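Minimal example, chain plus 2-acetamido-2-deoxy-beta-D-glucopyranose.
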Amino acid sequence: MSHEAVADIGLIGLAVMGQNLILNMDDHGFVVCAYNRTVEKVDHFLSHEAKGTNIVGAHSIKELCQKLKSPRKVMMLVKAGQAVDDFIAQLLPHLEKGDIIIDGGNSHYPDTIRRTKELEAKGFLFVGCGVSGGEEGARFGPSMMPGGSRDAWPALKPIFQAISAKVNGEPCCDWVGEDGAGHYVKMVHNGIEYGDMQMICEAYQIMKDALDLSDDELSDIFAEWNKGELDSYLIEITTNILKYKDTDGSSLVSHIKDTAGQKGTGKWTVLSALDQGMPVTLIGEAVFSRCLSAIKNERIAASKILKGPTAKFTGDKKEFIHQVSKALYASKIISYAQGFMLMRSAAKDNGWHLNNAGIALMWRGGCIIRSVFLGDIKAAYTKNPELENLLFDPFFTKAVTEAAPGWRNVVAQAALLGIPTPATSSALAFFDGYRHAVLPANLLQAQRDYFGAHTYQRLDNESYVHTNWTGTGGEVSSTTYLA
Ligand SMILES: *[C@@H]1O[C@H](CO)[C@@H](O)[C@H](O)[C@H]1NC(C)=O
Ligand SMILES: *[C@@H]1O[C@H](CO)[C@@H](O)[C@H](O)[C@H]1NC(C)=O
Ligand SMILES: CC(=O)N[C@H]1CO[C@H](CO)[C@@H](O)[C@@H]1O
């Protein structure tokens, strides 16, 4: 068997995502060498899905590395965690300094930070690349978010940008930043996806419960929304889902058990937000909403004990539907503003130089959260790369201000009718908090100083002071505790 260096890139892991990325690379003229631990899988792939292509295979890691042109590029699409470290260990004896290992899986970014440091110390290059768009995206154009060893990018760019999704000819793939930045941005993407889905579900429930609309009618409304500012993949699939019929002609979605699953990337985003001290409230509510949905038996019991309002919606239905679309749009602006706040903070902490306009473009096509709206975010960050907050961009300032009256009415109506809107209403609470120069934390600081001598600052003096509130307080203030 010939072990000539014929391949442009190697790919480990022949599950669907891996296979589809290989076929996508082949479509674009790159020679790919495929490897899987279960080697029969390689032969099966070559004689079936890859038949008639230029794809080659390898039956060992050694053979895989021998078949790669220098600098060698090996991409792993394996389960996040130990498997990634195991494959790296197996690859290293067969690689040379300057060769590139790419982790295209859903790794947690601290692992990617660690791996980049370890491999760079040994003279290798490592890239953690978020890949979004599911099986279809992998096959015909995913959104790709690579970060890690910067020196790897010139070698990877032609391949990654060729196979990624395109919007108006621009690839939805660009260099994200240092070490774990690519996987971090992918994680936030997934968190934002949780938020987008939850907001849509709330709009669906408000209209269903308050206005008594059928799934067919709701499908038509979402189809209409998809022609305007809410135009996005998730609204599009919602339209299709709502009109999908079960065998008996009723809507299939009405038969699906209302308990949500989750794999953890939403939770990771929220944990990182807590670590960063960033108020990413909407994604937090989206994660907790899935948790609440999961305790269905308890909710069934509660539904028999805890009664809510019996009032019915009495306003103008058409106007209300329009306001729900505005509530969704405004909440979405808040969610993305929060997501970019989080990335900005994490970037500062980790020394990443994030390209915000590039991130918006990477999410603009190919991935689950793709939307017209991301084009507006890209425009905002292109105009001002140092933009402190998305809400300060004139386009978004105007958009959120104009949407606010409808948004407020929807949240108020939902509260009066007893319909839960955790994401939509927490987004409004954030908006109102964010636009207040003065919040009641003055009282909170006083409380902390009262019971814990935690000290406070005066508006007219930055020094931390403690007050003897009760006349019984001691001398000591806990000046080390300022959290
Ligand atoms: C600020 O407060 C500290 C502590 O009470 C005090 O020592 C200092 O003189 C004050 N500064 C001004 C400018 O009032
Ligand atoms: C707190 O106030 C009381 C009552 O005025 C006083 O007896 C006590 O000495 C004060 N404590 C300090 C640390 O100043
Ligand atoms: C790394 C690896 O071995 N990946 C895949 C090989 O093929 C099997 C069967 O399709 C997959 O389950 C593995 O994940």
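The chain has a mean pLDDT of 95. The longest helix spans residues 317-350.
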